[in-house]
Amino acid sequence: MKHKTLRCAAETAALLLTVAMLTFLIAGLHQHEPDRELSTLDTGWYQLADGVRHEVTLPVTLPAEPRQTLTLYNDTLTDSDAGKLLSARGVEYGIEIRAGETLLYRYEDNAFPKNTQMKGRLWADAELPDNIGGQTLSLTFTQLSDRTGRFDAPLLGSVRSITGHHIQTSLFSLVMMLAMVILAVLALLIFCYMSSRGIHERRFLDVAVFLLLCSLWCLTDSALYQIYGRDTATGSVVSFYAFMLMSIPMVHFVRNTVSGRQQLVPDICIALFCANVLAQGAAYRLFGIRFIDMLPLTHLILAAGVAAMLTVLLRSYREQPSQQLRLHIAAFAALGVFGVAALVLYGLLHIYWYDAIFQFGVLLFIILLFRELLGQATEDMRFHMEHRISHLMQREDRMTGLPNRRAFEEYMERIRTGEVGCRDAVLTYIRLEGLNERNDCFGLQAGDEAVIAAARCVADFCRACEDGGESVSCFRTGGNEFALIRPEPSANSGQLHRQFSAIVARYNRTCAPRARITMTYGFSRLCDEDGKSRSISAWKAEADAYLKRNETRLGGDTE
Question: How does pLDDT run across 5-29, given as a tens digit for each residue?
Answer without folding.
Answer: 545 555 555 555 555 555 544 444 4
